[in-house]
Design brief:
Elements: H1 10-25, H2 36-60, H3 64-89, H4 100-123, H5 129-151, H6 159-163, H7 171-200, H8 202-207, H9 212-234, H10 236-251, H11 257-286, H12 292-310, H13 316-326
Length: 329
């Protein structure tokens, strides 16, 4: 069976998607019959939801540098996992295909190490938090590069894991992304008050029995999980874009926390949907096979620029107009 979106232009794409969505809800389509475009939308949409939830609190706590650090240091975990598997499972000449659990475990441990070292430098050595994060991720990322150069230079370890390949997603990728999303949703539903208080007023949070340090560690762990859940599907750099850009854009639209999360979700999901539709349109009518992931991140950037210029009350154009209208003549 061919792809139902083949030959669709930009607006046809949405009509086909709506029709197949209705068929799926009515039981006429099974999960196994999802088209590649629909798999991309689901994976990117799930990642956008996780990114909005976790990224909103990273932005509020000014911890976005942490997401950048994890997107780099995760390479060290991948390389170490490869070297250990080669040491215990085969000869040096043999090329291994690392299992998902092994990669997940290695990357998660690396994330915990990154978090721990950052906190030690911040609270024990008394470096500024951004300086601590920059120092840790620079050193660990450099160590990963050195190990790649020394032991696995011909194996291209981490190329797609860092850059991702949205155009080659499979049904199995949906499970990983939505498993992480489920964890994030459960944690934020049950601990929302703690996250809110420790983000806006740490002193008041302590008086209510919420430890800002505990919630910071928990948020770092969630950032690690979100990065790990997405790196195999779309690459850590795209995960970083979802964690940072939609919440930053949403902050220029609202000051209310729930609205901020809602806007971040809407921006990330809409950019994912439009990116997949635009990729299909360009391939169908112009024969241009652009990276779907690249298009999605570009759309996220366009959203930010648009809001930066045109957002009500906070946009540059709106403020300039207001200044012109109310300035004395």
């Amino acid at each position: 069976m061919g792809n139902p979106y083949t030959g669709s232009h930009f607006f046809d794409f949405f009509a086909v998607f709506a029709r197949r969505l209705w068929n799926g809800m009515s039981g006429k389509l099974s999960f196994e019959t999802l088209a590649t475009d629909e798999i991309q939308i689901l994976v990117l949409g799930g990642l956008a939801l996780s990114g909005a939830l976790v990224g909103t609190f990273l932005v509020l706590r000014r911890m976005t540098m942490l997401a950048n650090a994890l997107s780099h240091t995760i390479l060290l975990g991948i390389v170490v996992a490869f070297l250990l598997s080669r040491l215990f499972m085969g000869s040096e000449e043999e090329v291994f295909s690392l299992s998902v659990p092994l990669l997940m475990s290695a990357a998660f441990i690396t994330g915990i190490v990154t978090t721990f070292l950052t906190q030690v430098l911040t609270h024990v050595v008394h470096l500024q938090e951004d300086a601590s994060t920059g120092l840790v991720f620079s050193v660990l990322f450099a160590l990963g590069i050195v190990l790649v150069t020394l032991f696995s230079r011909n194996l291209h370890v981490g190329t797609e894991l860092v850059m991702g390949n949205v155009d080659a997603l499979h049904l199995s990728n949906i499970k990983g992304v939505f498993s992480v999303l489920a964890i994030n949703v459960v944690l934020f539903v049950f601990l929302f008050s703690g996250y809110k208080l420790t983000s806006f007023d740490p002193g008041l949070a302590r008086s209510f029995g919420f430890s800002p340090a505990v919630f910071s560690y928990l948020l770092m762990i969630q950032t690690s999980l979100t990065t790990i859940g997405g790196f195999r599907a779309v690459g850590v750099l795209m995960v970083l874009a979802f964690l940072v850009i939609p919440p930053l854009t949403a902050r220029r639209l609202t000051s209310r926390l729930t609205s901020l999360i809602g806007w971040a979700v809407a921006l990330g999901v809409s950019a994912s949907f439009l990116g997949v539709a635009l990729s299909r349109h360009l391939l169908t009518y112009y024969g241009i096979g652009l990276s779907t992931g690249g298009l999605v991140v570009t759309l996220l950037g366009i959203q930010y620029l648009g809001v930066l210029l045109l957002a009500p009350k906070r946009g540059i154009a709106w403020q300039a107009l207001r200044k012109k209208v109310y300035s004395p003549t």
